[in-house]
Structure formats: structure tokens, C-alpha cells
UniProtKB/TrEMBL annotation, chain A:
Pfam families: HEAT, PPP2R1A-like_HEAT, VPS15-like_hel. GO terms for molecular function: protein phosphatase regulator activity. The gene is PPP2R1B. GO terms for cellular component: cytosol; nucleus; protein phosphatase type 2A complex. This is Protein phosphatase 2, regulatory subunit A, beta a.
Automatic annotation (TrEMBL), chain B:
The keyword Repeat applies. It comes from Myripristis murdjan. GO terms for cellular component: protein phosphatase type 2A complex. Belongs to the phosphatase 2A regulatory subunit B family. PP2A consists of a common heterodimeric core enzyme, composed of a 36 kDa catalytic subunit (subunit C) and a 65 kDa constant regulatory subunit (PR65 or subunit A), that associates with a variety of regulatory subunits. SUPFAM superfamilies: WD40 repeat-like. This is Serine/threonine-protein phosphatase 2A 55 kDa regulatory subunit B.
Length: 605, 449
């Protein structure tokens, strides 16, 4: 549509005699304005994204009196257009004449704040929050605050949910009478009929509490918080947990016990697993917010219960927090709490019935070794690591292996190597290729920690076996793995252990394996350096140019292009050039194409 | 069953207010109505058909020409919700038939509904537009391009009033989560999630997220040869966000608590009436299959429909229903022939009135039944144009189960089993009921006193 439209006016312009008088600079703007109502969404979107250009051309006066009224009525459009519009309006202050006129942006944003699509509403609220800062204190009371009130008492819950996000930005800058009104509105929304609004209020409770005077936090917010935390809707109660973090941070330590803890204890034992999940998920934040004393007395038993929860989702969320929770325990009693309270639960989780729980634990459990030190790790944690390394679920084993570095620092990896090897071998041969892919990615890390000897002895064969895996993604990852190993162990090691095996595959009857040789050479040449590449790899590549399979031949051309920069000019001219020239006359058109490409890239023509 | 005298002494008397649809006896398959649903205020009534279309009727408030009718329903919007599709992997045709429609509680001036066929659930927005932009820079309103040399100043388009236009636009498509046929969708009281049930599984969705859903019930046995029952319907509790029920082909209803665990394979309550051994027959299991389950508006009771009866259960009593109403007990002797013509597998739905004091369900011969729970009376009415004159109270019908046929009675043998009322709906507040015969829609109101 844009094409057609713009072409047609271009066509008209180029007609003799036409367009001589029109103001040329107006055309692009005229097109943009017309496309604000084009049938094609993409063009409308395009125009909205250039709204500032349109506004600049119209000037501040016409932007205020014509463009903004038009935009206010544009709420029927597609979500993506409305989203772009809501975002643009947040940066429009200068274009309507500066802070003095910023309130002109309120009507379009108000109508966007009532649409049904959450992303649009959220963006409109974000922009409103932004421009609220550009209002003078007077304008804030005259224009902005009435808008918040209108939204807060709107018929539809979409507008009331949007209002929830605006209280906190105007509260600090208005007079005390207006402040009282705002508090009243917020209170009303916290007990709204629709769960949507109560959810919005619950999710903004913490933010609103932060801008309130401490007395009002104690008198107003706490009662709202308590009410929301015992709402009949699970989805409201779980949001109150989030608010708990911010509220607890605001209150003096001595008030926490009476004002916050009863609700938090109740949430940790809520009948609904979703609420308990939320507590588990926010545990580290809660722990920081309530401080060390309450953590010791209250959170430790709560955490133990969450680790033993009957719902696996909750146990998994709690298991994920084990390391962070332990790290944040007060130093004086940390070890004692972990050893007597946490570790027994962790031991049980190692043999949990649910694999997500076990793998969540496996992803953090190694981190405990740094906290507990060498002796405790060897005595208490090592058996758990070993058990997890033998777990039936590959993800658990993978998570252990991927975090080996933490243990390495504390006790050295040797302690584990006996169990590590069978685990690695089993994962390397897992029936699921994604599992094999994951373990390949840890190979360079393992190789670095286990050392070259151990690697040669135990793991080298695995790495070579992956090269002939029947899944391409594995062969590709294996190739990349070899490159990283060479970077780690050096060219000499490569020459002795890897290169002969890779080159041997060039004679494999399966053309896919022959191609793997080429892919390996592509990856290894740089790391191996000029000498090995020229003396050992190049002859093999050149010989493969006679392969009967065209795919191999054009990959020879691609490989030559790839390794060319590593070779010296003599080799290029005397060896590579004749072969590429021959391939350039191949009967297969792909071979020809890639040969010619290589010739031009290597400048051999 | 009480006599007609009792019925007449009751103050609820119905007259036909509107009959919609073709008068032609020749029914096009696509026109067969497959579902009915009032929105939460009763202002809108949505119908879905086998052709994948949805027709929405709007109540005209106050009809001055015909004051005896409080209101009339007229077409508000018609749109194609689902198209026939083909699953190439399984070589299966996917019908466009609308299995269920559910309205979303209203969130702004627009209305939203969920509609589903066997596989795909869609969220539709029905909105009004009464303004359109006018004024281009480079062309006239009719599309002719202007001579650009005449464009010397910029014009910003202006919105002008226009005739009201109702638009239906697809907002979300929830696909690829059901292997079997979807029989129910139900919106949660939290207004942000809903469930969809097929023969073996129930999934939980977030209304704004289309690319993932959570499986909350799975009754598929590891070995499909061990399959003994299927899910026939599922519904969320109207107020408790954590409670839902699903009914099975074995006549049981299971209630689950989503607070207890993420997977609701273990039910918290199971409602089941022990079978009466004296009534046992080859057909017992088939006729005990539940075709519909609906919570009362109060949330205290639920109603189930099986082939011959409607049962009301108190959620606090699992052992037996608190009330049982026979819908067409006279068919018990006809089960053999109903089995042969497949009618025994018909899925009748049922509905509550606004204050839960009455229930309604359909039967054969375009008859439908109403049961008053407080006064314990019931009535059979017929949806037909011939027997109901405008503004006149329609006469109850009576089926003669055997013995001597009285005047005005119909013998069981002369019932037409091709004329069946599967779908009925009751206005959420007022005494307005809607009944779908094959391809016709009948709207009745109680007679104004």
C-alpha cells in the first residue's frame, strides 16, 4: 500500500508541469499523516512510530488542538499500534510545548489506559507515570490527580486497574487533603468487587507503601495488606507475598513481629500451593527484608516446611533457594543452622520422587560446599553429589556436572572423578540427543578441571565418537568442542591425539562422516596453526576434491576458502588454486558456485 | 407428578415472544444450532452452529410498539468463528462446529467471548464503533488522488460520527493443546484463567497466554484398551477460584481443589448415586452417562443431566443427589429402539434460572421441561410456532405413558425423535428463556401480570 501510494504521487510529481508549486517538504509529512489511517497495520504502525516527525511539522499549537484529539479517538486500532502510540506519548512533552502544556497528553493516555489489552494499558500507565514528573505541583493537582480519580472510579475494571499504578507517582507531590483522598481511593480499590482490580492493587501495594508516611504505612497499608493476604482469591493472596517484601523493608525491626509476621506465617502455610510457591520463590528477598533475628526464629522452620511441602512445585521452588538462603544466614550461626536444620531436608530431597525437585536441587547444591568448607563437604555433601551423579534423571546429573567448578575450588575434582566418569559416559550415550548435546557443551570445562592426562585416558574416545553421531546437531557441537579443546590443550596435543583420527574419517564410506572431517578442519585450522594445517590437513582436503559425492566436493571448496587465510601464499598458488579451478568447472552447479566464491574470496583469479 | 391444576395455579406462565430461524422443514446441516449462552447481564445471547458461525442477539430495552413484551432480541453481530480444517498428520477432518461459547465477565465497553470447536478455542472481541476518521492530505475521501501541487498545508484527520458498526475480531487463538474433542470451556472466578476439557484431559489456560497451558486432569490410561470412562463436561465453581468439577460417562462427578496440588488427578470429592439394582439393564451404563453439569448461581448446588433425569446435588453431600427430576421416564421402555437409532447418545444440556429456584432441560418432540424446586411441580412445554400464538400463554403438554390416552395427551409412540431440544438457556435475572430446536430459536417470556 505504501509502495503504491508513494509511487503514485511520485508518478504524478514527475509529470511535466505538475508539482512545481507545492511545498516539497510537506509531502513526506502528508504521507505520514495519511498513513495514520491506512488499511495496512504495518503502515499505521510506521506512521505512529514517526509521530514526533508529524508533531514537529505541525508545530506545538496544531499538535495540541488537532493531532492529540485525533489520537484520543484512535483507540479502536490494533494492539501493536496502540502500544506504539502509548509509548510515543510518554516522550511527547516538548512536542506539545513543554511542561506547561504536558497535561494535553492526558486525554489520549487516559483512553489508552482503559483498553482491554494489558500490554497497552501497562504502557499507557508507564507513560503517564513518566509525564507526571513533568507536571508542576499545581498542574498535578489540577489535571493529573483528577485523571487518577476518574480512572479509579471508572465503570470498567480496566480503568480501575490502571489507576492502581498511578497513585504512587502523584502522592508525594500533592497537598495533604489530596493525599487523604488518594489514600481513600487506594483503599477502595483494594476491596474492589473484581479480582482483577484487587490483583492490580495488591501488586502496587508495596510501591505505594514506599511513598507513604510511616504512620500511614502502619495504620493504612498494614490493614490493606492483611486483608489482601487473606483474600478469597488465591491469585490475590499470592501477590500480597510480594508486597510483604517491600512493606517489611519499610518498617522498623521492632514492628515487624506484630505487623508483618502473622501474615507471612499464614502465607507460608496457606492452603493453596500457589501461595506457598510464591513464598518459596520470594524467600531470599523475604529473608533480607525481615533481618537475621526473625530469619533464625521464624524463617528457618518455614523454609524447612517448604522443602518438605506436599506439592512438588513448592519443593522445587524452595530447593532452588537453598544456596541463597544458606548464604544469607547470619554468619555466627550459619554453619550450625545448615548442619542441623537445612541439611537433613536437603538429604531427603536428593531422593525426592519428583525429578524437577531433584534437578532444582542439583543446580544449587554444589554451592553449599563453599559455605560449609572442606571437611563438611567431604563428609556430608560429597555423598549427596555422588548420589545425584547416579540419578536416573539425566537433567539432575547434568546440573551437577555443570556446577563442578564450585566443588573444584573447595575439595578438588579428583574426589569426584571416580563417580564422574560413569556419569559422563552415560550422559554421552543418552538416547535423547538434547542430553548428549548438553554434556558436550560441558566438555571443555571438564577437560580444564580434570587435566589433560585424565582426559586422554577417559574422555577422548567419547569426544571422537560424537563426531559420528547420527544427529547433525551433535556432530556440529562435537566439532566445535574439538576446537575449544585444542584452544585449551594446544596444537601439539591436537597433532598427536585429534588430528590423525579426524583425518582418518576422510576415507569413511559414509559421506556424512567424510564431511565431518571437513567441518573439523574448518574449526581446527586456526587453532592448530599454519604448519599442521599445511602439512597434514591440506593434502586430505585436496584429495577429497575428487570425491564422488557433490556435497563433499562443494564442502571442499568451502573448506579451502575457510582455511585459506591460515596457509602461506605458496601453498595457495601451487596447491589450492589448481584444485579450485578444477572444481569451478565441475558438472554440479553448487560445486561450481562455491569454488568460484572461494577463488574470489581468496583472490586467486 | 402433580396435576395440571397445580401448574395453572402457579403464577409463572409462559408465552412465546419470538421464534427465529427458517420455517423450511428442509434443514441445512450447517444451520443446526449447537450451543446457546447468555452473557452475564442477559443483554446479549450468543448462539453457535454446526457451520462454525456465531450469531449474537441483543436485547432491545423497552419496545414501545409492543408494550406487552418487555424486550425483544435482535441480531447484533454475526461472524464466522471457526472454519473446517484438516489435520494432515492424523488424516482427520476437524469440524467447524461450535461446541461451546462462554462469555468473559465484561472488562470495558467491548464484550468478549470464548468459542471452541473440537480442537481450538478462540477469544473474540465484539465491539461497537460509531466514529470514523475523515480527511486525507493526498487524496479525496473517495480515494482519487489530489494533484499534489495543490497540497500547500497539512491536514490532520478528524473523527466524525457514523452509523453504529459492530465488529467481531479474533483476539487470541488457543490451539494445539487437545488431542481429543473439547466438550467444555469454563472461565474461573479469578477472571484471568479458564479451563478446557476434552474426553480425557482438562487443561488450564491464562486468558492472555496462548502458547502454553497446564494439564490439571489426565485420566488417559497407559493402555488405551483399559479405557472405561471419559470426561463429558467440566465447570469452574462460580465463586471459589480453586474448585472445579468434571462429570464422567459413568455417571460420577468429581470435584477437585486446585489449592491442594498442581495436578488434580486426585479428586477431593466424588458425587455418585448407588445404582438401583432393580433398574439394572444393558442400557444402565449408557443412560447414566452425564451429559451436562452446571453449578447453581449461589455455588451451593450443582445440577447434572443424564439421559432420563436431572439431579441436583448439594456440594456438601456426595452420597446422593438432594433432588431428582424425571425428564421423560416414559422412554425407559423404549431404550432399545433409542439405542438402535443412536438417540440414546444425545447430549442434553440443562440450566438454572436466575435465583436457582427452577431448572430447565430439553427432551424429544421439541418438548422441554421445567422443574420448580420450591413448589415441586414440573411442566412440559413445546417449542412450536403452530401451537403458540403471540402473547398467549402456551399450554402444557402431556405424554401418555400407557393405558388409556386422555384428550390432549400424546402417546409415546407418536413422539418425533428427530425433533430434539438439546440446548436451552435461562436469562440470568429475568423470566426469559431460550430454547434451540434443530435450526430454530424460540424465546419465551413469562406473561406479564
Amino acid at each position: 500500500m505504501f509502495e503504491r501510494c508513494s509511487k503514485s504521487w511520485r508518478a504524478q510529481r514527475s509529470e511535466p508541469g505538475g508539482g512545481a508549486d507545492g511545498d516539497d517538504s510537506l509531502y513526506p509529512i502528508a504521507v505520514l499523516i495519511d498513513e495514520l489511517r491506512n488499511e495496512d497495520v504495518q503502515l499505521r504502525l510506521n506512521s505512529i512510530k514517526k509521530l514526533s516527525t508529524i508533531a514537529l511539522a505541525l508545530g506545538v499549537e496544531r499538535t495540541r488542538t488537532e493531532l492529540l484529539p485525533f489520537l484520543t479517538d484512535t483507540i479502536y486500532d490494533e494492539d501493536e499500534v496502540l502500544l506504539a502510540l502509548a509509548e510515543q506519548l510518554g516522550n511527547f512533552t516538548m512536542l506539545v510545548g513543554g511542561p506547561e502544556y504536558v497535561h494535553c497528553l492526558l486525554p489520549p493516555l487516559e483512553s489508552l489506559a482503559t483498553v482491554e489489552e494489558t500490554v497497552v494499558r501497562d504502557k499507557a500507565v508507564e507513560s503517564l507515570r513518566k509525564i507526571s514528573q513533568e507536571h508542576s505541583p499545581v498542574d498535578l493537582e489540577v489535571h493529573f490527580e483528577p485523571l487518577v480519580k476518574r480512572l479509579a472510579s471508572g465503570d470498567w475494571f480496566t480503568s480501575r486497574t490502571s489507576a492502581c499504578g498511578l497513585f504512587s507517582v502523584c502522592y508525594p507531590r500533592v497537598s495533604s487533603t489530596v493525599k487523604a483522598e488518594i489514600r481513600q481511593h487506594f483503599r477502595t480499590l483494594c476491596s474492589d468487587d473484581t479480582p482483577m482490580v484487587r490483583r492490580a492493587a495488591a501488586s502496587k501495594l508495596g510501591e505505594f507503601a514506599k511513598v507513604l508516611e510511616l504512620d500511614y504505612v502502619k495504620s493504612d497499608i498494614i490493614s490493606l495488606f492483611t486483608a489482601l493476604a487473606s483474600d478469597e482469591q488465591d491469585s490475590v493472596r499470592l501477590l500480597a507475598v510480594e508486597a510483604c517484601v517491600s512493606i517489611a523493608t519499610l518498617l522498623p525491626q521492632e514492628d515487624l513481629e506484630t505487623l508483618v509476621m502473622p501474615t507471612l506465617r499464614q502465607a507460608a502455610e496457606d492452603k493453596s500451593w500457589r501461595v506457598r510457591y510464591m513464598v518459596a520463590d520470594k524467600f531470599s528477598e523475604l529473608q533480607k527484608a525481615v533481618g537475621p533475628e526473625i530469619t533464625k526464629n521464624d524463617l528457618v522452620p518455614a523454609f524447612q516446611n517448604l522443602l518438605k511441602d506436599c506439592e512438588a512445585e513448592v519443593r522445587a521452588a524452595a530447593a532452588n533457594k537453598v544456596k541463597e538462603f544458606c548464604e544469607n544466614l547470619p554468619e555466627d550461626s550459619r554453619e550450625q543452622i545448615i548442619m542441623t536444620h537445612i541439611l537433613p531436608c536437603v538429604k531427603e530431597l536428593v531422593s525426592d520422587t519428583n525429578q524437577h525437585v531433584k534437578s532444582a536441587l542439583a543446580s544449587v547444591i554444589m554451592g553449599l560446599s563453599t559455605i560449609l568448607g572442606k571437611d563438611n563437604t567431604v563428609e556430608h555433601l560429597l555423598p549427596l553429589f555422588l548420589a545425584q551423579l547416579k540419578d536416573e534423571c539425566p537433567e539432575v546429573r547434568l546440573n551437577i556436572i555443570s556446577n563442578l567448578d564450585c566443588v573444584n575450588e573447595v575439595i578438588g575434582i579428583r574426589q569426584l572423578s571416580q563417580s564422574l566418569l560413569p556419569a559422563i559416559v552415560e550422559l554421552a550415550e543418552d538416547a535423547k540427543w538434547r542430553v548428549r548435546l548438553a554434556i558436550i557443551e560441558y566438555m571443555p570445562l571438564l577437560a580444564g578441571q580434570l587435566g589433560v592426562e585424565f582426559f586422554d585416558e577417559k574422555l577422548n574416545t567419547l569426544c571422537m565418537a560424537w563426531l559420528i553421531d547420527h544427529v547433525y546437531a551433535i556432530r556440529e557441537a562435537a566439532t566445535c568442542n574439538l576446537m575449544k579443546l585444542v584452544e585449551k590443550f594446544g596444537a601439539e596435543w591436537a597433532q598427536n591425539t585429534i588430528v590423525p583420527k579426524v583425518l582418518g574419517m576422510a576415507n569413511d564410506p559414509n559421506y556424512l562422516h567424510r564431511m565431518t572431517t571437513l567441518f573439523c578442519i574448518n574449526a581446527l585450522s586456526e587453532a592448530c596453526g599454519q604448519e599442521i594445517t599445511t602439512k597434514q590437513m591440506l593434502p586430505v582436503v585436496l584429495k577429497m576434491s575428487n570425491d564422488q559425492v557433490a556435497n563433499v566436493r562443494f564442502n571442499v571448496a568451502k573448506s579451502l576458502q575457510k582455511i585459506g587465510p591460515v596457509l602461506d601464499s605458496n601453498a595457495l598458488q601451487t596447491e589450492v588454486k589448481p584444485v579450485l579451478e578444477k572444481l569451478a568447472t565441475d558438472t554440479d552447479m553448487d560445486v561450481k558456485y562455491f569454488a568460484q566464491e572461494a577463488i574470489s574470496v581468496l583472490a586467486l583469479a | 407428578m402433580k396435576s395440571e391444576g397445580v401448574w395453572e395455579s402457579c403464577d409463572m406462565q409462559w408465552c412465546l415472544s419470538q421464534a427465529k430461524g427458517s420455517l423450511d422443514d428442509d434443514v441445512t446441516e450447517a444451520d443446526i444450532i449447537s450451543t446457546l449462552e447468555f452473557n452475564h447481564t442477559g443483554e446479549l445471547l450468543a448462539t453457535g452452529d454446526k457451520g462454525g458461525r456465531i450469531v449474537i442477539f441483543q436485547q432491545e430495552i423497552e419496545n414501545k410498539r409492543q408494550p406487552q413484551y418487555r424486550s425483544e432480541y435482535n441480531v447484533y453481530s454475526t461472524f464466522q468463528s471457526h472454519e473446517p480444517e484438516f489435520d494432515y498428520l492424523k488424516s482427520l477432518e476437524i469440524e467447524e462446529k461450535i461446541n461451546k461459547i462462554r462469555w468473559i465477565p465484561q472488562k470495558n465497553a467491548a464484550h468478549f467471548l470464548l468459542s471452541t470447536n473440537d480442537k481450538t478455542i478462540k477469544l473474540w472481541k465484539i465491539s461497537e464503533r460509531d466514529k470514523r476518521p475523515e480527511g486525507y492530505n493526498l487524496k479525496e475521501e473517495d480515494g482519487r488522488y489530489r494533484d499534489p501541487s495543490t497540497v500547500t498545508s497539512l491536514r490532520v484527520p478528524v473523527f466524525r460520527p457514523m452509523d453504529l458498526m459492530v465488529e467481531a475480531s479474533p483476539r487470541k487463538v488457543f490451539a494445539n493443546a487437545h488431542t481429543y474433542h473439547i466438550n467444555s470451556v469454563s472461565v474461573n472466578s479469578d477472571n484471568e484463567t479458564y479451563l478446557s476439557a476434552d474426553d480425557l484431559r482438562i487443561n488450564l489456560w491464562h486468558l492472555e497466554i496462548t502458547d502454553r497451558s497446564f494439564n490439571i486432569v489426565d485420566i488417559k490410561p497407559a493402555n488405551m484398551e483399559e479405557l472405561t470412562e471419559v470426561i463429558t463436561a467440566a465447570e469452574f465453581h462460580p465463586h471459589q477460584c480453586n474448585t472445579f468439577v468434571y462429570s464422567s460417562s459413568k455417571g460420577t462427578i468429581r470435584m477437585c481443589d486446585m489449592r491442594a496440588s498442581a495436578l488434580c488427578d486426585k479428586h477431593s470429592k466424588m458425587f455418585e448415586e448407588p445404582e438401583d439394582p432393580s433398574n439394572r439393564s444393558f442400557f444402565s451404563e449408557i443412560i447414566s452417562s452425564i451429559s451436562d453439569v452446571k453449578f447453581s448461581h449461589s455455588g451451593r448446588y450443582m445440577m447434572t443431566r443424564d439421559y432420563l433425569s436431572v439431579k441436583i446435588w448439594d456440594l456438601n453431600m456426595e452420597s446422593k443427589p438432594v433432588e431428582t427430576y424425571q425428564v421423560h421416564e416414559y422412554l425407559r421402555s423404549k431404550l432399545c429402539s433409542l439405542y438402535e437409532n443412536d438417540c440414546i447418545f444425545d447430549k442434553f444440556e440443562c440450566c438454572w434460572n436466575g435465583n436457582d429456584s427452577m431448572v430447565m432441560t430439553g427432551s424429544y418432540n421439541n418438548f422441554f421441561r421445567m422443574f420448580d424446586r420450591d413448589h415441586r411441580w414440573d411442566v412440559t412445554l413445546e417449542a412450536s410456532r403452530e401451537n403458540s400464538k403471540p402473547f398467549q400463554v402456551i399450554k402444557p403438554r402431556k405424554v401418555c405413558a400407557g393405558g388409556k390416552r386422555k384428550k390432549d395427551e400424546i402417546s409415546v409412540d407418536s413422539l418425533d425423535f428427530n425433533k430434539k431440544i438439546l440446548h436451552t438457556a435461562w436469562h440470568p435475572q429475568d423470566s426469559i428463556i431460550v430454547v434451540a430446536t434443530t435450526n430454530n430459536l424460540y424465546i419465551f417470556q413469562d406473561k406479564m401480570n
